[in-house]
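Researcher: Structure prediction, please.
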Amino acid sequence: MLKQVQHDGEGIAPAFEDRTIQQIPLDRRHGRPRDLFTLWFGANLTTLTIATGALCTTIFHLSLAASIFAIVFGNLFGAIFMALHAAQGPHLGVPQMVQTRGQFGARGALAVIAFVALMDVGFFATNLVLSAQSLHFALPAATPGISIAAVALIGTAATIFGHDLIHRFTRAMVWLAGIAMLACFVVLLWRYPHTDLFAGQPMTIAGLLGAISTSVLWQVAYAPYVSDYSRYLPPETGQRAAFWTSYWGCVIGSIIPMLLGAWLGSLFPALDMSQALAAGTGALGYVAIPILTLSIAAASAISLYCAVLATIAIIQTFAPAWQARAKARTILSLLLAAIAVVMALFAGPHFMEAYTNFLLLLLYVMVPWTAINLVDYYLIRHGDYNVASFLRADGGIYGHYNGVALFCYAVGIVVQIPFVANGLYSGPIARMLHGADLSWIAGLLVVSPLYYVIARFKRQGAAW
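Model: Predicted structure follows.
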């Protein structure tokens, strides 16, 4: 077993992490709640977050004032679910997808875990494509192939080292990317001091709801792996501290770049994000883009790390005696990164649009999962789980399959279909609402009470 080394009173010095999906023992717990704040704050300071904010003014055609409301409200609301998952880490000490076996059963959880692994490899590939486009614009000598390889290499290296280095990477981005983004705001305010907050096309309810949903889903996307980064904290950290530090880190870290994107989108609606940043901030944009690209590498490491843990959980389901350690994480990191690089290198001209729609469809299958997980953890079991059963071949006290969770999960997917609205499919209710996507609301409102009632009924000894 690799030894951990104390480092200047700051916790554990970065070294090869030797654990993967096993429960973190008490003598290996370390860190402070504020580490979660810097992790999620730094991870969101990227050009992808800026581009997401620009959707408010360029795609949903909102005024800057309406965009500010949608971004702030959507992130404040969506981060509640994200942070509730983060609070589970210090208590249970296992990755989120392993804990999911407590609701769905050892094999019943496989579909959810597979979706998460696929989603995170996709996020990694999407980040590579976007970073290549941005870096090539700022530094023409950095061809797309070179840019993709560079960002993939940095993100993969951080994943191989593991948990502690990823924390330190994002902490550095808080300062580097944070200063760059603040400078962009200052320059924009100096160059465009009289921006009309209410200019633009007349606001539509569909546009406002679409912008809010985008911000909500941005936060919900973190839910499947947010506790992967809080599981090393000592149990005495407490759920409240883990919740609030994760919540405000992700909320503030998301709102700032999204507001920058919405402002740039209102000023330069016909330009892509790199061009808009350069047009709005001049020479500063050519400095900020490489820094924000480095921040994308940090965010990519977060996604790849989760994909690796999810893949290990899938394999371990069929090989329960396997104790995956640093070597397994290294091999799988390289393999999954290679898949993402191939996807990015062979991406067509409309890759970002098509794959974003695909990722949104994957998020739709995550909404009923998050409802089931949170209701089960906070309202049914109150955090009381048999962690040893998570890693047993037969699922321990949770068995292979949990019919209640699987039934509610299926209902949650079906009930969202009429409300879905994206480039791949629009349901009948979404069309009636002129393209407003309210699928996540339907999923949460139906699945949460449904699972609570049936699960409580079953636990009280009634027949299922």
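Model: Residues 1-13 have pLDDT under 50 and may be disordered.
Researcher: Thanks, that helps.
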